[in-house]
Amino acid sequence: MPHQRIRWLAGLTVATGLALCGPVVVAKEAAKPIEITSFSGAYLAARVAEGDNDLDSAITYYKQALAFAPDDVQLQQSLMLTLISQGRFDESLPYADKLKEVPDIERFSRLALAVDTFRKKDYQKAEYWLKLSLQADLDRLISGVMTGWARLGAGHGKDAVSYVAKLKGPEWFDLFKSYHRALIADVAGQKDKAAEAYKSTLENMAAGGAAPETWLRNAEAYARFLAREGKKDEALAVLDKSEEFVTGRTEIEALRESIGKGEEIAPMVASPADGASEILVNLATALNRGGGEPFVRLYLEYALALKPDSDIALVQIAGVAEQMKDSERAISYYRRIADSSPYKQVAELQLGLNLADLGRNDEAIEHLQALVEARPDEMRGYLALGGVYGSKENWRASADLYDRAVERLKEPEPADWNIFYQRGIAYERLREWNEAEPNFRKALELNPDQPQVMNYLGYSWVDKNMNLVEALEMIQKAVELRPSDGYIVDSLGWAYYKLGRFEDAVRELERAVSLRPEDPVLNDHLGDAYWRVGRRLEATFQWSYARDLEPEPDVLAEVEKKLQKGLPPLATNTAQDTGASRAKPAPEKAD
């Protein structure tokens, strides 16, 4: 079903451990440039192209608009920001220079000029460009930390550390300040100050909850520092603490392996430009909470202008491209990540998923199969490839793949629950319930109370009129854990429907539809429940709406039949056996 495929692809990133937010704009194929004969035509074309995330065309049209109005500050601003967002940083600099004294845009124009002077190692000039007439908290933190790095570059390491320490701002500044104090002291060779700042940042777990990526970056930097100081056990203890905070991070696993082998460990940051890039990445990731993707992308492009090979910036900006439904752009970023990077495996997995998202399934499968063969004990490869098979409803290939994965698991760990969950889904879709059910139970054994597994297993039991009391309790618990998940709420409503509790079904199905109004199956379910409680007009409306949402052919046929004849009386079509084949819960991967 189309809606199921979308839900599959939305969940596939869990296989890599990257969490993504909701989309803002949808990338479209670049349109053939239109002939422009007026300022208004050029400006309108630029805005439309920008809204479609076709930034190269937007740049072309903004330049054409400027030909009609070369002194228009708003146009210069739009063009500068679009150039930076598209990774054409050097082209933005002439416009940044023109806008350097314009208060409303200086936060971006002067930042661009500061980045350029960092690259040229003209640190005194960089500090000059970082002085702003108007400063919000975010700008004050960026300019303050970057000024610290500029002072280090100018040879004033001691002053640089104290300058960052004295920055005034809200409490949320503290994590970023202490982390960059540590980095600056580390690069300056002030080992005692670096150790103190790294340690205090590591102990600030509360701030880490608000900015987890920055907290983890500090943990990695601290472990690198300790390893270089010959304190191997202490370095590994720091990595242990980071894995208590979040597990499965490839960069932490790679660093642990390198320290264990006694390899030479590089510092996290080696230069003022690296440090300036780091604060921009830190704040961009902290801001990436959904709804601000263009803004986040802008700061990440500044970071890449300072450090083009920054693997953390490339991974993050590729994720932003995915959030904006720009899979081609995401692929281009992933391909820039070096083979030696600990993020390379994640990048290759995500690259394969983006190929699938573009409908290039054969390429995606070939790419992901190669990854599985190269690293047969890496479960994320199986999850990614299995997800692509699932999006094509090739459940036999999916089941066979997960069989291979399970064979590689000598002693399954809690983190392996998803392999068994996806294997169960594949067999359930093949109508091989005797193979499916043990896998769902194994997933719950490894990860008790996992809401997606409880939902899928409970729903399946209800659909088969099995273990109805346990099934209802299981789905109710899943809803308690995920009250805003429309698909899980739908499962509860449909369970009530199957049990003949139609008023309860209406209540839950109305809530499910309010959470997922775009799903035709959920709307179809609500129509059925309305019919059973005598709300025939509303039932007809709901079925009509489900039909207009273009469901899969089997669902569409049932909906059209109900629009013509309604539902049969319960005497011949009981709540426990509706006759219609119902869509199973979407096999999304839970985080």
Automatic annotation (TrEMBL):
Stretches the record annotates as Disordered: 566-591
Pfam families in UniProt: TPR_1 (PF00515), TPR_11 (PF13414), TPR_16 (PF13432)
Keywords assigned: TPR repeat
Xref: SMART domains: TPR (SM00028)
Gene3D superfamilies the UniProt entry points to: Tetratricopeptide repeat domain (1.25.40.10)
TPR repeat segments: 345-378, 417-450, 486-519
Domain of life, source organism: Bacteria
InterPro entries (alphabetical): TPR-like_helical_dom_sf, TPR_rpt
Protein name: Tetratricopeptide repeat protein
Lineage: Bacteria, Pseudomonadati, Pseudomonadota, Alphaproteobacteria, Hyphomicrobiales
